[in-house]
Amino acid sequence: MNTIVLLTLTGLGLAALYFLVASGLSLVFGLADVLNFAHGLFLGVGAYGTWWAAGNLPGAGGEGLGFVLAVAFGVAAGTVVAVLVELVLIRPLYSRTIEQVLVTVGLSLAGVALLQATWGADARPFPRPAWTRQVTGILGAQVPNGGLLLIVAAAVVLGALLAFLRWTRYGLIIRAGVENREMVTALGIDVRKAFTLVFAIGGAAAALAGALGGVYFGTVSPGQGGSLLIFAFIVVVIGGMGSVVGSAYAAVAVGLLQQFVNYYGASGVGDLCVVALLAVVLLLRPQGIAGKVAHA
Amino acid sequence: MTDSMVEAPPARVPDELTPHRRGWHGLRPYLPLVALAVAAVLPYSTLELPGIFEGPLNSPGTLQLLAVCLVFGGLAAGYDLLFGRTGMLSFGHALYFAAGVYGTDILVTRAGLPLWQAALLTIVGGTILAGLLGAVALRTAGIAFAMVTLAFAQVGAILVARDFGGLTGGEEGLPLDVSGLPAGLVGVANTVNLYWLALAYLALVVFVVHRVSGSPTGRVLAGLRDDERRIGVLGLDPYRFKLVAFTLAGGLAAGGGVVYCLIVGGASPHITSSELTLSLLVMVVLGGPGTRWGPVLGGVGYMYLDHRLTAFGSSDAVESLPAFLSRPLSQPLFVLGTVFILAVYFFPGGLASLRTRLGPLARHLPARRSP
Amino acid sequence: MTGEPVLTVADLSVRIAGLHILQGVSFTVAPTGVTVLLGRNGVGKTTTLRAVLGLTPRGGEARGTVRMGGRDLLDRPTHRLVRAGLGYVPEDRDVFAGLTVAENLRLAERRGTTPAYDRVFALFPELDRRGRQRAGSLSGGQQQMLAIGRVLLNDNRLLLVDEPTKGLAPKVVTEVAEVLERVAETVPVLLVEQNLAVVRRLATDAVVLSAGRVAWAGGAGELLGSAELTRSLLGVGSGEVRA
Question: In angstroms, what separates the C-alpha of C159 from chain A's closest C-alpha?
Fold first, then answer.
């Protein structure tokens, strides 16, 4: 029983990380048709931004409010980078889908290399508040607080995203744009402003994933975003591109499957099961669980 | 430069279709043979090219670098069969290459098979693998296809990294057991044979891709790239043609893996990474998708730069720059990634379009000289 | 035709994926009434409407001039054209199926202007009643009402309406035609329509396209009154009218 609770909660922690990365990817893809390979870079910027701020930014640090400030700085850095990428690199290639993918591919290669050039290829210890290193007893299982933090953060982000999509004008434009972008412009709306917005949202969520993932894993390295990104892609496809709720369901399914099978089967078999799940979903429902609809 | 953004990439027109001009262009059909001959006799040269290669041309180090470049030239040409010629954006091509490398390595080193059996089994196996995975992945199209192929390739990376059954050597990689190999392929002194093997592989891939794209099947593939619905209207099944291209490209990549395994003497897990597929894409786009020589040039050039930029990054010229410049410049992927992004904006046709782009200029120059 | 045309299309050529869909199309739209764009399937009627709106697909190219109120429209972004007074009711309705009726309407609201909900609900009381229903679950006719309604939320200088009766039951076709007749009393309409009964009822002027060119333009009555013209231009006898 203890093991099952522990595996469930660590699986949800993993799912939270996937969701933070995948929700932005999914919205960016659903609205702007951009398969964003540079999304892992936003995560890296968030992680290194937090790490840097904790050591260098006045007032920021590894504990309490200082840590909150450091994370806020990392998230802000990720958001700014994401917005710049959209405005400078993606927007001039508007509606040229393949070229946009190519640019994000180049950016992911160059960006990771730049992080590596600046801070070295090796993993660095990540600043984390003392309480995140402790465990909390839940139903007899000793669950790491870092994982719980991730789950809470992802739940808050999910709630905020859904409220934003459901209740705001831009949320309405994004939901409509995911369904039929051309018709949104034919109603007199400049849909490109919404593109910038989803990049900003996606960048912020991915940067948060970078910062909290750093806390969870205890280290930060330039390649971290890349390996997470592949599973986030799988989550996006399974969940249905453009659907935030679909991403949440798919993230939970993938996180739990991976954690349980890796524990009860051999290590790595869980990862294989995830890909098998992807193949099954594609064969049964090529459009993913939720189809291409941004549900509120 | 602004013009180049609007204009359709000229490289999309296959070489075969552009009208040949008179004069020395009459020789053009023979140029590939001349280039092949030059490349074949190159190991007999002791020419020193300081700054370009570290040793003379026939030194084992230079020949090995060239051999790796040639294999990737062939690999990029094979990948272009998917991307440039059929319009399929696969992010999992590294899988079939890695299958070739690890397949050969495992069959020789772990199973003790003779090389020719191992190579044959590996290529057949890699082709079947591509056929099976392609059959599933091609049920999707466009971006979803890209993601699915990426996920499948990830399985390969996981299998290799987790070292199931102790076959792959995990993170350490698996050095090739050379004791059972033909003597001519073993040892530093025989690097030249590996070079010729790589050259033969490149020539084979270019020949196959050229023949396929000139055949009726190739015209259907080009039609799929331009507008899939039109092929459907003709009563042809796009799925079958795409699967043929995917399987063939996978088989060619597996063959490249066999050669690469021999050249570097083993397998290491980095060849299974998605980064390698992304590099293939970079090579093809830099060279010029859908052209006969563009992807080859892109592949050879990319691998050369990837190796040489490391040396360039630690050279005195770069070291003397301020840190914020020298550190990024010492990362080959930073330089290549940036060049790639610029190429997407300003050179949509890649290297192969240079000739077309510089053509008007070249015709202009002599005209000026003679008033 | 009386008065300055609301829209002038001159020498409009559209090329998509290497195919010349339109080859120098020129016509005008009268400031009142319904100008109908006719022609067999695939002659470029929808392409013309979309080119006017700047919706030529990626890889396509539109050349020529399209003028409304003395300004050239070509190469201006679609959302600006729509804000300048071009209302678009697309083929196949294209309502947002996952959004509610009220959300579909709210999307058309614009900052700085008061949306004319009273006008829309006076024409389509059903839209008011079904505000919370998802647009995807509406019937074809109701979806068409929504597509027209969301355009009428704002004031327009010209409506572009693409095959509004396509795929609808005969009774609903009549309803849609009635609505368009009322709408056309206040705003000029450029209409693409295959149903000759509807054309007969609404059209004041007609432009016939054939193979990417204008084959005939003039009063709708003249065209529909002549059996010979309708047969040669539209390929139907005047008695052969689909209801």
Answer: 12
User: Which chains share 3+ C-beta pairs under 8 angstroms with A?
Assistant: B, C
Residues of chain A with C-beta less than 8 angstroms from the C-beta of B341: 89, 103, 106-107, 110
Band of the pLDDT at B263, cuts 50, 70, 90?
Answer: very high
Beta bridge partners of C35: C190, C205
Taking CB atoms and an 8 Å limit, are B148 and A118 in contact across chains?
Answer: no
- Which residues of chain A lie closer than 8 angstroms to C108, CB-CB? 187-188
Tokens representing B129 are: 């693998």
What are the extents of the domains in chain B?
2-369
Instruction: Identify which of C38, C68, C80, C20 has the alpha carbon closest to the alpha carbon of residue C212.
Output: C20
Report strand pairing: C34-38 vs B174-175.
unpaired
The whole-angstrom distance between A65's CA and the closest CA on chain B is 32
Which residues neighbour B313 within 8 Å (Cβ) at sequence distance 6 or greater?
B326, B329, B330, B331, B332
Tens of pLDDT along chain C (243 residues)?
457 899 999 999 998 877 888 999 999 999 999 999 998 888 889 999 999 999 887 778 899 999 998 888 888 899 999 999 999 999 888 999 999 999 999 999 998 889 999 999 999 999 999 999 999 999 999 999 999 999 999 999 999 999 999 989 999 999 999 999 999 999 999 999 989 899 999 999 999 998 889 988 989 888 888 888 888 887 765 444 443
Q: Is residue B55 a contact partner of residue B46, using CB atoms and an 8 Å limit? A: no
* Token reading at B252: 């060619």
- Predicted local distance difference test score (pLDDT) of residue B202: 95
Report domain C7-234's class.
alpha beta
Which chain A residue has the Cα nearest residue B170?
A268
Burial class (CB in 10 A: 0-12, 13-18, 19+), A196: middle
Inter-axis angle of helices A145-167 and A244-264, to 10 degrees? 160
Residue C234 is predicted with a pLDDT of 79
Q: Which residue from B minimizes the CA distance to A93?
A: B345
Mean pLDDT of B305-323: 76
The pLDDT, as a whole number, for residue C58 is: 72
Residue ranges covered by each domain of chain C: 7-234
Decide yes or no: CATH 3.30.70 for domain B2-369: no
| A270, closest residue in chain B (CA to CA) | B158
A-chain residues within 8 Å CB-CB of B152? 275
Distance, CA of B68 to CA of A221 (rounded, Å):
29
User: Looking at the complex, does the CB of residue A278 fall below 8 Å from at least one CB of chain B?
Assistant: yes
- Tens digits of residue pLDDT in B112-139: 899 999 999 999 999 999 999 999 888 8
Could you report the predicted ipTM of this complex, rounded to two decimals? 0.89
**Which member of C58, C106, C108 has the closest CB to residue A95?**
C58
Whole-number Å distance between alpha carbons of B16 and B206: 13
Q: What value does the mean pLDDT take over residues B242-249?
A: 95
* Assigned token pair, A245: 């709720």
* C241 lies within 8 A of chain A by CB: no
Reduced 3-state DSSP string for A46-80: HHHHHHHHHHHCCCCCCCHHHHHHHHHHHHHHHHH
C111/A contact by beta carbon, under 8 A: no
User: C93 at the A interface (CB within 8 A)?
Assistant: no
Q: Which of B338, B339, B342, B347 to mutate to test the interface with A (most CBs of A within 10 A)?
A: B338
Phi then psi for residue B204, to 5 deg, are: -60, -45
Q: Which of A294, C178, C121, C150 is nearest to C130 (CA)?
A: C121
CA distance A129 to chain B (A): 31
Lowest mean pLDDT among A137-141, B321-325, B327-331, C39-43: B321-325
Q: How far apart are CA B340 and CA B205, in angstroms?
A: 24
**What's the confidence (pLDDT) of residue A48?**
95
| B161 has a chain A CB within 8 A of its CB | yes
Closest-CA distance, A96 to chain C, in angstroms, reads: 8
